[in-house]
Amino acid sequence: MDLTIWDLVNRFDSGEIRLPLMQRDYVWRAKKVVRLLDSLYRGWPIGSFYVWRTNDEYPQKERSGKVVPRALDGFAGFLLDGQQRLTSLSNAIKAEAEVELEHRAFFDLENEQFFLGEMKRTLEKRINAADPLIVPLSEIVGIDGDSALEGIERALLACGERGKLGKSGNLTGKYRQRLHRVATMMRRVALCEVFDDNHEEHAFELFSRLNKGGTSLSAGDVEAARLASAATKGIVQPMRAVAAEAGMRALGINFVFLLRALVTVHRGNCSFSKLPKSWAESTYDVERSWRDTERALRTTVSFVQDDVGWTTRR
Fold first, then answer.
1. What is the pTM of this model?
2. Which residue, among 8, 61, 22, has the nearest Cα to 224 in the 3D structure?
3. Are residues 18 and 98 in the same domain?
């Protein structure tokens, strides 16, 4: 499929490419995002993307960052591999009003380096001071060709007005070339494979295999994916909401921990390796087990707060 990286980001932002419930949360730190941007700038490979397309109804996971629905050409599916990369790129090129500074990307024109907004205090000061050598990607990336060229010329004009183009403007050509590389770095063809299959279990298995590289899937991650099946999908979002609470996070309780606790309450054994694929088919029993699990965890958190003096200040 002939799609550029920008096409994928655009479809991801519009909601045409969605996240299945089996996907984990967005976890990339600033350094990984910067390396991704640098690879694009250098023309280096950034890996393949895999989209699962099914004719069946399937719930989607909420993604990090703002989604602005807009009609494109109907390309749709669920992203099995590439969430961290597409989310990072989507946030990196957004304007100030659309995403927090910590996720926005900037290009240091003088040193030919990328940064996210809050990576360094000195950088943040230069952003606030409107240093023309620190160029927001939102001004030249992810927009049409003419607008990108106008953004490049505005950046060069600002540099000239502040005396940042060297003697007699001798740095103008070099800086224009660098900005043009930034503006076009997402226009290259993406390696995107579409997996057409209406069998949910096949999608789970492919998701597991694809995610063996990078941050490998644990047994808990695999079972978390299975929990997103039609029978038990209703408890996935409530579980994620509990895992996101300050009290739970302060005690190191994440989604996989919640899942292990649920399995223990539901089956009397915390081992993921002994779970049959059909363990969550009984919706009522699993939901009841989740209510018992949540009640026990909240009692534990409350005990720690009251008896040990721990507070949500952490």
1. 0.71
2. 22
3. yes
**How would you class 271 by CB atoms within 10 Å of its CB: exposed for 0-12, middle for 13-18, buried for 19 or more?**
exposed
Q: Which two tokens stand for residue 230?
A: 């039609």
| Same domain membership, residue 164 and residue 82 | yes
Q: Are residues 164 and 255 in the same domain?
A: no
Q: How far apart are CA 280 and CA 272, in angstroms?
A: 13
Cα–Cα–Cα angle for 80, 16, 63, rounded to 5 degrees: 60
Classify the C-alpha dihedral 113-117-120-121 as positive or negative. Answer: positive
Question: Residue for token digits 């967005």?
Answer: 26
CA dist 288 and 211 (Å) reads 31
Q: Among residues 295, 275, 296, which one has the least CA distance to residue 232?
A: 275
Same domain for 173 and 302?
no
> How many whole angstroms separate alpha carbon 60 and alpha carbon 21?
5
With H, G, I as helix, E, B as strand and everything else as coil, classify residue 154. helix
For residues 151 and 272, state if they share a domain. Answer: no
Q: Tokens standing for 181?
A: 């590389």
120 and 240 fall within a common domain: no
Q: What is the pLDDT of residues 112-164, one digit of tens each?
A: 999 999 888 888 899 999 999 999 999 999 777 788 899 999 999 999 999 99
